[in-house]
Design goal:
single chain; 204 residues; mainly alpha; Tetracycline Repressor, domain 2
Length: 204
């Protein structure tokens, strides 16, 4: 990728994640990049085009992550605990706490109130897809006899709602520091342990 184009994207990502897409101008971007405004249009049609490129990249990463999770779900694991830890690690470390993905999620959270397409994208990747995947996991665990049979969609909400809450508390509220990441891990994994203790998950 052209170095100037890459820098425009990186600077835009940073500014959008701090202020929101609507509050950032091409002039703001150019000032931080250190180029003339006219130079941007050599690489992008307009500010919306920059935003779309960032959203497309995010969607590609999210699709890849979900595919990786699905493969882990159907693949053979050494045990329930190893398989579920792999799923959690992938979703937490490579998605929620990934620097690029985290910043795009922040942008989507801000812009969902102004842009219906962004709202749908935010709901799809932060709510619908994770809940659908978790529901599938619980269905598999029920079929394997590892947890008691019940409503898998309800279990997905019961499992994911605190994860989403802790993500909002630690990962999307203020600067994404190592301290905040660790605080999220502590809360999230404590919840997971408690959750499976309550539903009778076999952690062997």
């Amino acid at each position: 990728m052209n170095s100037t184009r890459k820098k425009i994207l990186n600077v835009s990502l940073e500014l959008f994640s701090q202020r929101g897409f609507s509050a950032v101008s091409i002039r703001d971007i150019c000032k931080c990049v250190g180029i003339k405004e006219s130079s941007v249009y050599y690489h992008f049609e307009n500010k919306q085009n920059i935003f779309d490129v960032l959203l497309d990249k995010f969607s590609e990463i999210a699709k890849g992550m979900m595919a990786q999770l699905e493969n882990g779900l159907v693949g053979e694991q050494d045990g329930f605990k190893d398989g579920f830890n792999m799923v959690s690690d992938c979703f937490f470390e490579q998605y929620l706490m990934n620097d690029f993905c985290n910043k795009v999620m922040r942008i989507m959270f801000i812009e969902q109130f102004n842009n219906e397409d962004v709202r749908k994208l935010y709901q799809h990747w932060l709510m619908d897809e994770p809940l659908h995947f978790q529901s599938n996991i619980f269905s598999v665990l029920m079929n394997m006899g590892m947890i008691q049979a019940c409503d898998s969609e309800y279990l997905a909400v019961k499992y994911y709602a605190p994860i989403y809450f802790y993500a909002q508390k630690w990962l999307f509220n203020g600067e994404l520091t190592e301290e905040r990441k660790e605080a999220f891990r502590i809360d999230a994994y404590k919840h997971i342990q408690t959750f499976f203790g309550e539903i009778g998950g076999n952690n062997g």
